[in-house]
Amino acid sequence: MNVAPKTLRHLSDLRDAGLAPVDKQAALEQVAARYAVAITPAIDALIDRTDPNDPIARQFVPDAAELQTTPEENADPIGDHAHSPVEGVVHRYPDRALLKLTPICAVYCRFCFRREMVGPAGMPLTAKQLDAAIAYIANHAEIWEVILTGGDPLVLSTRRLRQVVTRLAAIAHVKVIRVHTRVPVAEPARITPELVRALKATGKATYVVLHANHARELTGAAREACARFIDAGIPMLSQSVLLAGVNDDPQTLGDLMRTLVECRIKPYYLHHGDLAPGTSHLRTSIAAGQDLMRQLRGRLSGLCQPTYVLDIPGGHGKSPIGPNYLAEDGAHYRVEDFNGDLHCYPPPK
Length: 349
Ligand SMILES: *Cc1c(COP(=O)(O)O)cnc(C)c1O
Ligand code: SF4
Fold this sequence. Notes:
Strand order of the largest sheet: 1-2-3-4-5-6-7-8-9
CATH topology of the domain at 81-320: TIM Barrel
Number of helices: 11
Largest sheet: 9 strands, mixed
Strand content: 15-25%
Structural class: alpha/beta
Bound molecules: pyridoxal-5'-phosphate, iron/sulfur cluster
Mean pLDDT: 96
Low-confidence stretches: none
Radius of gyration: 21 Å
């Protein structure tokens, strides 16, 4: 008899699915007790069990290395708490605010920067908290854009999303609604025409930012899910996290960026790995990230170039971290081309 595939959430599920080696059970129990686990059928189907270094498994299957927290790591690595005026809102930059509707995600990424905040035990905003969050946005005329994030906003019901979008769209100064999500990859069937319609607000611009880290995540079903947004007039961007052993070589990273562009998704950010606890085995150096960016610039279309950013610990926001192509050289500028050759540019008059 066929049983409908289910999301793997417990160590026993992982064991039955052949994703938790017998000799690692005790350590993995500890990892799973500390950090949420969820692997949807769509993601499970992508895991190559014959490859011990499978880049999909590395993103979602718990690893004993997560028990190692390094001194620089921090439970709130990007300082969300420092800028949260009311529950669910993070207002760090004047013109845009995050609205975190739920701490629940479809899948839990092992490198998540909010891993101490997300999980299935978390509670979505209550009606009262949502009222307060929307009132805050309505009372701050400088908020031009609201970014729905979480958790993953697209785990919420279509009805609830429609209500939130309708309420945000009623605020005159809010012109843009941006949704950050992993659901088109993790659970493509969830992106129904009704959901797409619920995110569109008359007179406002909706953008969807897909979180994807490897070209293999863009399966046929995931591409169709994204096309439903784009064909409905919702532009898509992507954000990726630079991850050791997942996408930290020029071929893999380039394939990811090209695949996104082929799906009409414009690469937006490549995040340097945040200092989330137990993630040092997945982080690269910044120098390695800059070198990868140089190689992308040298090899691929401008459409395939994300901005490499660091979220500065302590809540100071994101900054582009290079590489740099322009330097001052005595009385001249020195500018580097895509081959790495240097050229002089005349100084200002
Ligand atoms: C990342 C982030 C944003 C969005 O930044 P963009 O550069 O506009 O993508 C907004 N607010 C907070 C608190 C953030 O962490
Ligand atoms: S989907 Fe986003 S918020 Fe959820 S676990 Fe992954 S990185 Fe964290």
